[in-house]
Amino acid sequence: MEVNDYIRRTLRIIDQLAPKISPKYLPIVRDAAGAGAWDLAITTLVGAVWEEGVVITMAEKDALRELMEYLQEPLTRLEQIRTSD
């Protein structure tokens, strides 16, 4: 994955999942993305979804997995996130 593709995918998944996470985390995710701290935005998004028990689609989970793998981040929390399909 190229950097530009990574950024596009990051923005897309943030937009998809933003309505599902609480205002506790949303500003952190959006501010990090707005500042170009894509790694912080994605890891915080995954942490928020995990901590809040948000159920996401398998496609959303796969998108997050690709981004986390790109960042070489551990997938422990991501693997525990429930999916709706």
Provide keyphrases for this structure:
mainly alpha; 5 helices; globular
Question: Would you mind describing this structure in some detail?
Answer:
The mean pLDDT is 94. The chain has helices at residues 3-17, 26-34, 38-51, 58-71, 76-80. The protein is mostly helical and 85 residues long. The protein has one domain (3-80). Helices cover 67% and strands 0% of the residues. Helix 1 (3-17) packs parallel to helix 3, helix 1 (3-17) crosses helix 4 (58-71) and helix 3 crosses helix 4. The chain contains five helices and no strands. The chain is globular and about 30 Å long.
Q: Can you give the helix content as a percent range? A: 55-70%
Along the chain, the helix and strand elements come as HHHHH
Indicate how many domains the architecture comprises: 1
Distance between the termini: 26 Å
In short:
This protein is mainly alpha-helical. 67% of the residues lie in helices and 0% in strands. It is globular.
Strand and helix layout:
Blueprint: H1 3-17, H2 26-34, H3 38-51, H4 58-71, H5 76-80
Helix pairs in contact: 1-3, 1-4, 2-3, 3-4
